[in-house]
Fold these 3 entries.
Entry 1:
Amino acid sequence: MIINIQKSEDTDNAARQFSKEVLSSPALSPDTPRVVAFYGKMGAGKTTFIKSLCKVLGSDDVVTSPTFAIVNEYTDGKGKPIYHFDFYRIKNITEVYDMGYEDYFYSGNLCLIEWPELIEDLLPEEALHVNITAREDDSRVLEIIETRH
């Protein structure tokens, strides 16, 4: 599946489409890890898309990149946690073990991950892999590139 975001004003609509067509799929049922790994270069729009996605899911929280905290927790419109990870600054995989990543990834709650390539071996098998690419005209392409079962 591919979602095109022509201009920044379209990000909320893209997040609505992603939520409706992807997050409501049986592959991300509460019985399986609900982990979405967002790949993309610096400035591709990972955090911007995650902000819109949290808004679409009913969160009133201020969504910011957890670059230094590694994980931020938000609440969706139904009172359920959304975990937002940014692994850009991890220096050693033991940091991820020490933070108790399994408690988050296997909680049944939505986990949105930036820079997942740095912890690739720790991602649940059922994780959804999404690539965000910025084009020269400032549009973005959101592509679901892999779902492993």
Note: The chain has one domain: 2-147.
Entry 2:
Amino acid sequence: MSNHSPVELREALGSGLLSFPVTHAAEDLTLDVAGYREHLEYLAAFGASGLFAAGGTGEFFSLTPGEVDTVVRTAVDAVAGTVPVVAPAGYGTSIAVEMAKSGEAAGADGIFVLPPYLTEMPQDGIYEHVAAVCRATKLGVIVYHRANAAYTAETVRRLAEGFPNFIGFKDGVGEVELLANLSATLGDRLLYLGGLPTAETFALPYLELGVTTYSSAIFNFAPAWALEFYRAVRRHDRSAIAQATRDFLVPYLAIRNRRQGYGVSIVKAGMTAAGRPAGAVRPPLSDLTSDEFEALSVLVKQVI
């Protein structure tokens, strides 16, 4: 059973950095539940404000519904109420509804609606998709604005007006005009999350738009560095942000941008470089090359 009402969840998640843990894999790419649990227990000491289990960094798109349920239940049990756990819901509407129900039954505190599978959608279809999830659970619901799930300001407003448990909007597109619109018209009715890959890169300008938090994949392998960067953003420490961006983020992004899908692959490689391996990524993603891994290892050693 959730420890947070939707409003309480909105406030809790917006108060600090968000953890999007990788999902650990054994050599045969099956779930490494013990490794995943140990990783969550390790990260718990660093004090993120929320844990999104089996999100994009957690390779949601490569997990079966049964595996998603296992990951969520493991996360809920591992953190034991010390941090809110948000479970994913995705694919078609019927599957997303079932996932939302499963997440609530597993003891999660919120639901994260990822883009539906494959097809493009009209705005009334996107609305009905999220509305069905909101109706299916009492938990707070956050949507991910990315890929084919391209929300307009009007659709977001309709959801906010129609469903008290619709509490959050995560931007994975970089649509500044839309964020400015939502922030100006809905204010703190919603939580706004930064969700572009390597969200640290956009954190300071997004803060000016009311985006008080973001999903940090780097938190997986360099949690202390990620938290200090977040604190620098919140205090508007432009000098510290510029130095961290120059010394780490710029060369890190140069490696990440070499191939499609490396936004997840580079995080798992970072885990290995930090001495906390989480296994390989599952297809259709691919791991870094040996040369790329060596270059990344030099960077990671500077921030752990």
Note: Residues 238-256 form the longest helix (19 residues).
Entry 3:
Amino acid sequence: MNEKFDEITASLKKNLPETIEEPNHPVKVEQNRDIKDDYKYSRETYKDLIDKGSLALDGMLELAAESEHPRAYEVLSGMMKNMADITDKLMDLQKKKEDIESKKQTTSTPGTVNNNMFVGSTTDLQRMLAKGDTIDVDPDK
């Protein structure tokens, strides 16, 4: 009986996503794993493309120098631009990861709280309100 229970529990642990309960903020671990896995896969892919592109760039540079053909130099400049774009995308990937992580941290903290306090007597407050000496603040600004 106990073995059957252990088998069912193990099966459920494999198939059900884990959750971590934080105060007023449940976080799904599986979503975090997906983000981390996707980031790792994308980063490895970009690095692999950069490595292979560097080798191809070296070969194309030799070919362009030997042939001295304008088309070879045109292809070489296109490859250089593509390599620069890939390295830029690698940096953008890092920035996006940091943005996602900082967004997770800020969602657990409360937003801006504005408190106003009038210091004076109720008579002073009534006079000020009667005169129209109030400050209107547009919350969208």
Note: Residues 29-67 form the longest helix (39 residues).
